Amino acid sequence: MPGLADSDDDWGMRPPDRETLLDLFGTTRSALEQVQASDRLTESLDRGESLYVVAYEGGQPAYLYFTGYSYD
């Protein structure tokens, strides 16, 4: 990955939008276990796209979870 994407049109890693987080987890502050257990997180990704999710513990940001697909 070249870095963080500034928009959905840029090539790079980006966070899911607020609506996606609410749809997937019912909150914008999901626990790491919720993120790891999600089968739907990568459904909208194509080859070469990636996401990162900030996961929370005790109400505080504690982890960055990275996922995506390569071009290979």
Write up this protein.
The mean pLDDT is 88. The radius of gyration is 12 Å and the shape is globular. It contains two helices and three strands, in the order E-H-H-E-E. By secondary structure, the chain is α+β, with helices and mostly antiparallel strands.
Question: Can you summarize this structure?
Answer:
Helices cover 19% and strands 26% of the residues. The protein is α+β, with helices and mostly antiparallel strands.
Give the key terms:
72 residues; alpha+beta; three-stranded mixed sheet; 2 helices; 3 strands; globular
Question: Which stretches are poorly predicted, pLDDT < 50 over at least 5 residues?
Answer: none
Element order: H for helix, E for strand:
EHHEE
The biggest beta sheet reads: 3 strands, mixed
How far is the first residue's CA from the last residue's CA? 13 Å
Strand portion? 25-35%
Rg computed from alpha carbons, rounded to a whole number of angstroms: 12 Å
Shape: globular
Average pLDDT, to the nearest integer? 88
Biggest sheet strand line-up: 1-2-3
Topology:
Elements: E1 13-14, H1 18-25, H2 32-37, E2 50-57, E3 60-68
Parallel strand pairs: 1-2
Antiparallel strand pairs: 2-3
